[in-house]
């Protein structure tokens, strides 16, 4: 007889008080384990918001009411429960009323009544919108485009202020398991990496309250000064009594009695005869270091392990009422609502269902915990030599990484690469932890943004040592300055009394023989060989520091002892030279200066940055770490060298932390099928190859889709980078506005062997700079002063050999000067007496370094990898390369850094330039038709352009209210160009987004700030900027192509002539033509080439034209961002080894041979 099977109906089980207490104690660990006190503290339980139109938080919702019920029952069942460090005295509920919906006040009172019935104290707080909306241009909070962000910030700050006032150190939130699932799923959809998929933390500092004392990581000093501190480190009474008893037990009663009779010495620690030796003068006491703050409010989420069904069951089983907000059911309102609707009403793939997502979250969290444990072990091996809170410095000795050997087997290289990647990540976490001790920022850098710094500090983790910079530079991370040393290993100090310049450079093999032969005897030479063999075997020796002199050292020593009459004659000659110099005019002085600098390079007199000159002039005179030097050197050149520790120096720059970014595939390299053009092919001469000169629309992407650009559900900027010049190697090619990807040897795709490179020309936008004066705000919370951290008014200056070099170890600039250049420019000839401009404050120090690195990367690709460019030795490269700039001096500054990065020279290098008003590279020549066409594309008569302004009226009003820009300002309201430029310049340099200064006096008597530009606003501005550029230069129809071709046509014709000369063998032997221009020039060129995906060319953007020879023919490859450019025009297509005749015919058809079509086109009315 078979048994009847049971039918089980699964229902949600209410959360018991015991389960809740266990969850609380699991996450509310003691923050100060050494504390002794038992002072009771209140705990706050929040009902986060009331009547929020976005449905992000519901006052009195089922989750918060379940939390309130469980908190009310804890004291009845578990007396003396501790949260963190203190027993709980009471639970206070805070209800925030946003007053955004009619009847919200009534609901708030109903919630308070329900909480009172549970025996809980409740405080109803209302958001004061009046002060916030003042001068913002909005009459109601609902009109704010970023209401959700602003409401969250005001809500948290209101609660933080209350917690600080009533000394609440713990705040409970009612987020539950379903909230965690939705959060992680949304982040997964948005493309977040592993750090973002960890989900909400169960315990964290209260957000949005960084400047509220007593709420965010502060309040401990005041607490300890109180009579009854909440965190008590003082001994208890019974402990004091016990200590007294132990001390009394150690005393000998007979000794105490005798001392009472005989008395004790006058000094408890010194005999009387030593008193005479005590100092009689007042000694300066050391400065008392500032005390270190701690404490603040912690946010706990004890319900994260419970599902919403169980919370509903808890309320139903105990008769607890709750309040629902109907807006939570609208799947079209917010992304969270949409995700909630999908998960409840659709069967998602197994990998996206709640068990899989939460399981992934737990695994990632466990891995993160293991990584942090590994960092803890490394910190245990890190020696902190000194921490000085007075100056904000910490001196540490970093541990060395011991990478275990990989046993022989398959995939050794792949396994080693994975292991190195893991250790680099651990090193980044270690560095982040150390930086957090001295950084002034609210949040430290993300580990993924520290890979470049890790390779600087831990060279052993570099999988390709050849990529490690030859001359390490100072760098700044999270406002922490890393002091530059000799390749990170030695401090060096040198005193030079000779008449030749001396400098530290790496030990080079070509100087080894001469140095060995200069030693006095065979024993000294044998000793040198033995030392090198023992301490620096193999190639390691060529990392040793060496001292070189710039000329004949022995001759200089002999001349140092010349007689007084010879010295007097030298002084007289110097006086005559100074008088003659003063008699020269400015132009003659400049010419003479160039001659002197050229002579200095020729004879081997260096600048302070160790720039290369003729190597045969350098003489190796000492290897200081080995103690080997030429005889008699110590009489004229003395040095001290020692091993060093790494020094972290706190910067005073007030900046915001870098933001994280995650990118899957770079949009700038996306390709798509071209759409049919608007006109058929044509040609301007019988011999021209048949090409299609028609306009073809770009591919439809998120960049040029206006609906996506302005949608509230769109966040970020497509994975683009806006907060750092650094792009991780694994993501190289991703759009980085601060420092665009460019040709590098590590990513360069070498063509097959049958191709031979014969000519390269590129156009290169300048690197990052300050905003222009026209782009600055009338009202800002900080200024771009000339002494801002990392900002310069000029390209990096030359060093004076007679004085200490403030720029030692930093990238140098070539002494670039302007050289008039005409070509066949039909708009005018070179002006008489054309001169260079004065220095102009634009390119920043970081931009100069990016420029230098750009040049070094180009040299690494086209010389080291391809063997195309000549070597740096000698001057042969000067006849093979040319550099051209615009009349804006910032392009000259960038060119100077690029030249030094490529050739290592600080000598004079000409920069070709055309006069303003006729320059074809800027372009600055007058072209009425082009101006008219661009105006039509960006006018209110253009439907798309008008639509994008209509969709962003609210954003404009908010930005105007913050910036102080007048709504009638034509510069800021012609497009988003000015706002884009201003905000991106700040973020690329680590500066905070701006806030509005309001005339409100705080308690401290100072002005307060409010109405800040949020990251969401900035991201929308960036998206709009890309849309505008795509529309202007590509999406505006045939007029966009015609306008670009007319305005940049002369330069395109010059490029075509260069390609034609190189292919025909009729040129002047130039291999490399480098143009440094602006975004307008690069954008017009991309418009002419009809880039299939158009973005705003970021800082350092480059378009490279490579001319290759194969089998008697010539082919062109065009690279943008280091990758092959794809055109929507079917005649061009993928610009990878297309016949040069095709590209020449295309340029000739648009501009004419030698630009003979441009003048007539520019004079045309349309």
From TrEMBL:
PANTHER family per the UniProt record, alphabetical: TRNA(ILE)-LYSIDINE SYNTHASE-RELATED
Give me the reactions it catalyses. cytidine(34) in tRNA(Ile2) + L-lysine + ATP = lysidine(34) in tRNA(Ile2) + AMP + diphosphate + H(+)
InterPro entries from the UniProt entry: His_PPase_superfam (IPR029033), Rossmann-like_a/b/a_fold (IPR014729), TilS/TtcA_N (IPR011063), tRNA_Ile_lys_synt (IPR012094), tRNA_Ile_lys_synt_N (IPR012795)
Domain tRNA(Ile)-lysidine/2-thiocytidine synthase N-terminal residues, every copy: 56-206, 295-341
Q: EC number(s) of the enzyme?
A: 6.3.4.19
Quote the protein name from its UniProt record. Answer: tRNA(Ile)-lysidine synthetase
Tell me the SUPFAM superfamilies matching this sequence: Adenine nucleotide alpha hydrolases-like, Phosphoglycerate mutase-like
Q: Which Pfam families match?
A: ATP_bind_3
Task: List the Gene Ontology MF annotations in alphabetical order.
Answer: ATP binding; tRNA(Ile)-lysidine synthase activity
Q: Which UniProt keywords apply?
A: ATP-binding, Ligase, Nucleotide-binding, tRNA processing
Q: Does the keyword tRNA processing apply?
A: yes
Family matches, as Gene3D superfamilies: HUPs, Phosphoglycerate mutase-like
**GO terms, biological process:** tRNA processing
What is its EC class?
A: ligase
Q: Does the keyword ATP-binding apply?
A: yes
């Amino acid at each position: 007889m078979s048994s009847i099977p049971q039918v089980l109906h699964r229902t949600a089980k209410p959360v018991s008080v015991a389960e809740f207490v266990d969850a609380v104690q699991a996450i509310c660990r003691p923050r100060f384990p050494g504390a002794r006190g038992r002072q009771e503290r209140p705990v706050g339980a929040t009902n986060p918001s009331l009547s929020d139109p976005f449905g992000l938080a519901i006052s009195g919702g089922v989750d918060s009411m379940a939390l309130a019920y469980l908190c009310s029952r804890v004291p009845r069942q578990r007396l003396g429960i501790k949260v963190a460090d203190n027993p709980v005295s009471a639970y206070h509920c805070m209800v925030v009323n946003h007053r955004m919906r009619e009847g919200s006040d009534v609901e708030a009172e109903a919630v308070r009544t329900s909480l009172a019935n549970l025996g809980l104290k409740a405080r109803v707080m209302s958001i004061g919108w009046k002060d916030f909306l003042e001068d913002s241009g909005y009459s109601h909070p609902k009109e704010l485009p970023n209401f959700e962000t602003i409401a969250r910030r005001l809500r948290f700050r209101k609660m933080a202020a209350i917690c600080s006032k009533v000394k609440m150190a713990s705040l409970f939130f009612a987020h539950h398991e379903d909230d965690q699932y939705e959060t992680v799923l949304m982040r997964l959809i948005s493309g977040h990496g592993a750090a973002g998929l960890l989900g909400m933390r169960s315990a964290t500092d209260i957000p949005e309250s960084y400047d509220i004392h007593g709420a965010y990581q502060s309040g401990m000093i005041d607490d300890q000064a109180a009579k009854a501190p909440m965190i008590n480190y003082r001994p208890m009474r019974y402990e004091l009594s016990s200590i007294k008893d132990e001390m009394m037990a150690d005393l000998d009663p007979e000794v105490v009695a005798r001392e009472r009779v005989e008395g004790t010495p006058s000094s408890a620690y010194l005999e009387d005869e030593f008193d005479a030796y005590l100092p009689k003068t007042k000694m300066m006491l050391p400065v008392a270091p500032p005390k270190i703050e701690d404490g603040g409010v912690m946010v706990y989420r004890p319900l994260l392990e419970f599902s919403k069904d169980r919370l509903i069951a808890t309320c139903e089983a105990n008769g607890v009422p709750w309040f629902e907000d109907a807006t939570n059911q609208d799947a079209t309102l917010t992304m969270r609502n949409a995700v909630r609707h999908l998960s409840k009403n659709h069967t998602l793939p197994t990998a996206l269902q709640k068990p899989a997502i939460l399981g992934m979250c737990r695994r990632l969290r466990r891995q993160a915990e293991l990584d942090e444990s590994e960092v803890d072990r490394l910190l245990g091996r890190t020696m902190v030599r000194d921490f000085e809170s007075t100056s904000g410095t910490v001196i540490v000795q970093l541990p060395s990484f011991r990478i275990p050997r990989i046993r022989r087997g398959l995939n050794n290289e792949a396994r080693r690469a994975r292991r190195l990647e893991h250790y680099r990540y651990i090193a980044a976490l270690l560095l982040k932890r150390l930086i957090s001790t001295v950084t002034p920022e609210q949040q430290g850098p993300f580990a993924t943004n520290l890979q470049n710094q890790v390779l600087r500090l831990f060279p052993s983790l570099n999988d390709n040592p050849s990529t490690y910079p030859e001359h390490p530079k100072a760098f700044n991370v999270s406002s922490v300055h890393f002091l530059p040393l000799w390749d990170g290993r030695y401090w060096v100090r040198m005193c030079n009394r000779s008449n030749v310049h001396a400098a530290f450079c790496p030990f080079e093999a070509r100087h080894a023989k001469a140095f060995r032969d200069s030693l006095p005897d065979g024993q000294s030479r044998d000793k040198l060989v033995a030392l090198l063999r023992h301490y620096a075997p193999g190639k390691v020796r060529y990392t040793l520091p060496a001292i070189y002199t710039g000329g004949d050292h022995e001759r200089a020593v002999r001349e140092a002892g010349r007689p007084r009459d010879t010295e007097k004659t030298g002084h007289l000659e110097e006086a005559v030279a100074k008088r003659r110099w003063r008699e020269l005019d400015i132009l003659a002085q400049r010419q003479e200066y160039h001659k002197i600098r050229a002579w200095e390079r020729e004879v081997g007199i260096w600048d302070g940055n160790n720039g290369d000159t003729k190597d045969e002039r350098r003489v190796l005179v000492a290897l200081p770490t080995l103690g080997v030097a030429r005889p008699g050197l110590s009489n004229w050149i003395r040095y001290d060298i020692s091993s060093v520790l790494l020094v972290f120096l706190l910067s005073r720059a007030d900046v915001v932390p870098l933001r994280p970014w995650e990118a899957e595939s770079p949009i700038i390299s996306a390709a798509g099928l071209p759409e049919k053009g608007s006109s058929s092919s044509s040609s301007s001469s019988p011999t021209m190859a048949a090409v299609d000169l028609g306009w073809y629309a770009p591919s439809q992407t998120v960049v040029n889709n206006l609906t996506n650009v302005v949608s509230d559900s769109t966040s970020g900027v497509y994975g683009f980078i806006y907060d750092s010049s650094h792009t991780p190697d694994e993501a190289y090619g991703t759009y980085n506005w601060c420092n665009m990807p460019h040709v590098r040897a590590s990513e360069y795709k070498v063509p097959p062997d049958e191709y031979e490179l014969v000519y390269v020309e590129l156009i290169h936008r300048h690197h990052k700079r300050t905003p222009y004066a026209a782009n600055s705000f009338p009202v800002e919370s900080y200024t771009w002063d000339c002494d801002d951290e990392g900002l310069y008014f000029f390209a990096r200056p030359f060093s004076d050999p007679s004085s200490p070099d403030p720029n030692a170890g930093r990238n140098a600039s070539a002494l670039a000067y302007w050289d008039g250049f005409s070509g066949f420019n039909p708009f005018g000839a070179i002006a008489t007496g054309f001169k260079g401009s004065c220095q102009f404050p634009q390119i920043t120090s970081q931009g100069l370094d990016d420029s230098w690195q750009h040049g070094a990367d180009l040299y690494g690709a086209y010389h080291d990898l391809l063997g195309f460019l000549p070597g740096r030795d000698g001057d042969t490269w000067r006849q093979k390369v040319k550099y051209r700039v615009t009349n804006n001096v910032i392009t000259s500054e960038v060119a100077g850094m690029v030249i030094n990065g490529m050739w290592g020279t600080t000598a004079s290098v000409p920069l070709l330039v055309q006069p303003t008003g006729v320059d074809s590279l800027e372009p600055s020549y007058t072209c009425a038709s082009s101006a008219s066409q661009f105006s039509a594309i960006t006018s209110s008569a253009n439907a798309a352009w008008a639509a994008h302004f209509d969709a962003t009226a609210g954003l404009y009003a908010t930005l105007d209210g913050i910036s102080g820009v007048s709504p009638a300002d034509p510069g800021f309201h012609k497009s988003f160009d000015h706002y884009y430029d201003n905000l991106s310049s700040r973020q690329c340099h680590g500066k905070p987004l701006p806030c509005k200064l309001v005339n409100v006096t705080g308690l401290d008597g100072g002005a307060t700030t409010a109405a800040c530009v949020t990251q969401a606003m900035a991201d929308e501005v960036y998206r709009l900027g890309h849309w505008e550029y795509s529309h202007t230069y590509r999406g505006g129809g045939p007029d966009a192509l015609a306008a670009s071709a007319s305005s940049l046509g002369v330069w395109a014709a010059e490029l075509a002539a260069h390609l034609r000369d190189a292919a025909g063998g009729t040129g002047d032997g130039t291999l490399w033509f480098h143009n440094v221009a602006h975004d307008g020039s690069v954008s017009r060129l991309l418009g002419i080439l009809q880039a299939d995906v158009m973005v705003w060319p970021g800082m350092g953007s480059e378009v490279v034209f490579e001319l290759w020879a194969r089998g008697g023919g010539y082919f062109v490859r065009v690279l943008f961002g280091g990758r092959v450019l794809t055109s929507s025009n079917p005649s061009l297509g993928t610009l990878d080894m297309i016949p040069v005749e095709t590209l020449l015919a295309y340029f000739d058809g648009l501009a004419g041979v030698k630009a003979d079509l441009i003048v007539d086109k520019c004079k045309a009315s349309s």
